[in-house]
Amino acid sequence: MDPVQAPVRLDLTTDVVTLTEQLVNIESVSRDEQEIADAVEAALAAYPHLTLTRRGHTIVARTDLGRDERVVIAGHLDTVPVNDNLPARREGGVLHGLGTCDMKGGDAVILRLAATVPEPNRDVTFILYEAEEIEAVHNGLRLLAESDPDLMAADFAILMEPSDALVEAGCQGTLRVDVRTTGERAHSARSWRGVNAIHRAGEVLRRLEGYDARRPVIDGLEYHEGLNAVAVRGGVAGNVVPDECVVEVNFRFAPDRSEAEAEAFVREFFDGFDVALTDSAPGALPGLDRPAARAFAEAVGGPVKPKFGWTDVARFSALGVPAVNFGPGDPMLAHKQEEHVAMEQIERCEQTLRRWLTT
Amino acid sequence: MDPVQAPVRLDLTTDVVTLTEQLVNIESVSRDEQEIADAVEAALAAYPHLTLTRRGHTIVARTDLGRDERVVIAGHLDTVPVNDNLPARREGGVLHGLGTCDMKGGDAVILRLAATVPEPNRDVTFILYEAEEIEAVHNGLRLLAESDPDLMAADFAILMEPSDALVEAGCQGTLRVDVRTTGERAHSARSWRGVNAIHRAGEVLRRLEGYDARRPVIDGLEYHEGLNAVAVRGGVAGNVVPDECVVEVNFRFAPDRSEAEAEAFVREFFDGFDVALTDSAPGALPGLDRPAARAFAEAVGGPVKPKFGWTDVARFSALGVPAVNFGPGDPMLAHKQEEHVAMEQIERCEQTLRRWLTT
Fold first, then answer.
1. Would strands B226-235 and B244-253 be described as parallel, antiparallel, or unpaired?
2. Helix, coil or strand: residue B144
3. DSSP code, position A256
């Protein structure tokens, strides 16, 4: 047995890179977030200007200054599984290790702001939540929206997912369908007695190859849809004409389509085939027509980009809260063994948000 | 532990249906043929007109009367796995159970002839062999052809695989290839950065769907080729554009093509794609132009049919020995849980061969 260890203490008065390092070194793979949530809760409890609420391993810290506007700033505490990439390691201006990019740099920014901006110019709800990297049923933000929707109420939300310290607005939706062809089994030595279901799937793939992606411009941002076979399976045995083939298709759709509209598009695209929906999540409109979002984008400066991947901003969008992604780290490095983050990006995100909350 | 049991004794003087039943009730799934081979060897050893040779669990029994002609009559002793279909069960004129059709009815005919035709009009080599239902590396007939090719030498061979008590001549060859498409991985939310290998396989399937089967007539028999995808696999994860897709294709080719010619046809058919041969076995020409084969077909009477499935007749054909399939049982019932055989077919096969060997 391990010796009993003192609880890890986070120092919110230290610099944001050191704090990131401390967070990275508390292993917190999804479903194992007790220790990091305890540490976060204990650290925030030292600041009387914050009202804390805990639900499972999700911590909510709010200011209540009666400001005209309220903003949510949120990040998840969990990571994908360890892959020989702990503890954190500094090299030049870069911090390496699991969670450095996705997304403990963002979490450190949140904790620093919560601790050191006691009188922000807009009320803030800081949310540090569990279980983002696994099935949605465990997602801390989803659970919070169900149990305490008032804690998620805001005029605007910032999700600190890695976005290279730029604003990535909204997100595309995603759905999956199984496109199934059927036939009749036969021994392959007498194949004319059967009907080959895999051959029939050729038309499914032909349509996919001919797919022309829609690229709608929404609030000045060009989204880019995608329709892809992500898996294909079929076959009974090496001497049997197969009677079933399934092509699993993932549709990434721009946020000007609802889930129902996206599903209808896919069903029409595969007209004549058996199409079964297996998974669906709505996109989020960029919301740059909302004053709070536009003001934030202007405060950050630099280009605003569309978010192609699905993120939890959609959960705010579904509650009517415009939301953007803004956090340190290259989103392409998320879930990679070699994930890392430029320290300068973490620092810049903290400075940008501090300025926005104080001037 | 089971009590030590006396070895099973086969009674070769009983009727052929009862003998079939005795053989069926000695469980002999491939690689577990010791008991049945021991019983066969012990039973044949009682007949001094036979010269016995044993190789593994393959038993060879020969007459050596100095006749002008020698014929091989062969059958395998193993079965596919038990599937709640033992012991044998009689119902009306039908015998049910594992191996009744494939092919202990034929084995019983062989044993009856070996025991009761001491002076056949042509010398006979009876072969009862192991491991036909599994990978060819274990096949008793293949091993015998390597270790003792002289024991397989003959003017003609009869393989007693189920053929509804009709002569099925020759057999088609079979080969398998993997047709592989490649692409580039990307996150499916930014799919335009990758190349979808599954989409590229659409053209492979389209060609297969347009395949027009050749049906050559050889020695008066119409064969029927077949080119089929028997499996397809591809996919990395539900959010990844896949970089590889493999279509496993089985080509059943008429015996007027060599293996090399068949492979060349498939490679040309999939021109432009990566094609890897994974498995190949030659066909067997019907050999009805050979006097011994023609005489046998005439003795049996009834229509002669082409054999579409691959059988061990090809092993004789490769040694220059014309060979046909002739045995009791519907070949479509082989490997089915409900396999069975009409008793009348077993009896008729015995009578036909007895007449052919004695008059």
1. antiparallel
2. helix
3. T
Please give the positions of B annotated as active site: 78, 132
> pLDDT tens-digit profile of B7-49?
789 999 999 999 999 999 999 999 999 999 999 999 999 999 9
Which residue of chain A comes nearest to B229, CA vs CA?
A198
Element (H, E) at B116: helix B105-116
Which architecture characterizes domain B173-281 according to CATH?
Answer: 2-Layer Sandwich (3.30)
A2 pLDDT above the threshold of 90: no
Distance CA(B223)–CA(A145), nearest Å, equals 67
A232: nearest Cα among A265, A273, A201: A201
pLDDT of A325 strictly over 80: yes
Does B53 contact chain A (CB < 8 Å)? no
Separation between Cα atoms, residue B8 and residue A144, nearest integer Å: 72
pLDDT at A127: 98
What pLDDT digit, counting tens, does each position of A276-302 carry? 999 899 999 988 888 888 889 998 998
List of residues 6+ apart from A74 with CB closer than 8 A: A110, A126, A127, A128, A129, A141, A157, A158, A159, A160, A312
Mean pLDDT of B290-315: 90
Cα A177 to chain centroid, rounded: 21
Q: How many CB pairs under 8 A join A and B?
A: 166
pLDDT tens for A222-267 read 999 999 999 999 998 888 899 999 999 999 999 999 999 999 999 9
For residue A139, pLDDT beyond 70:
yes
Residue among B211, B182, B203, B275 nearest A202 (CA): B203
The letter for the amino acid at B336 is K
The confidence score (pLDDT) of residue A6 equals: 66
CA distance B215 to B222: 6
Helices B34-44 and B105-116: crossing angle in degrees, nearest 10, is 20
Distance to chain B for A242, nearest Cα, Å = 6
Coil, helix or strand for A164? coil
Q: How many CB atoms are closer than 10 A to CB A15?
A: 15
Q: Is the pTM of this model over 0.95?
A: no
A301 and A286 in contact (C-beta within 8 Å)? no
Q: Token pair 């080729």 is at which residue?
A: B225
Q: Which residues of B touch A283 (CB under 8 A)?
A: none
Q: Which of residues 300-359 of B touch A (CB under 8 A)?
A: 308-310, 332
List of E strands, A82-241 = 89-91, 94-96, 123-129, 156-159, 167-169, 173-182, 186-187, 217-218, 221-222, 226-235, 240-241
B174–A contact, CB cutoff 8 A: yes
| Residue A32: active-site member | no
Q: Tokens 């015995």 label which residue?
A: B350
The CATH class for the domain spanning B16-170+284-358 reads alpha beta
What ipTM goes with this model? 0.84
3-state secondary structure at position B222 = strand
Give the burial string for A138-149 (b: 16+ CB within 10 Å, else e).
Answer: bbbbbbbbeeee
Domain ranges of chain A: 16-170+284-358, 173-281
Q: Which helix (DSSP H) or strand (DSSP E) does residue B265 occupy?
A: helix B259-269
> CB A233 to CB B235 under 8 A?
yes
Can you give the pLDDT at residue A1? 42
* Mean pLDDT computed over every residue of chain A: 94
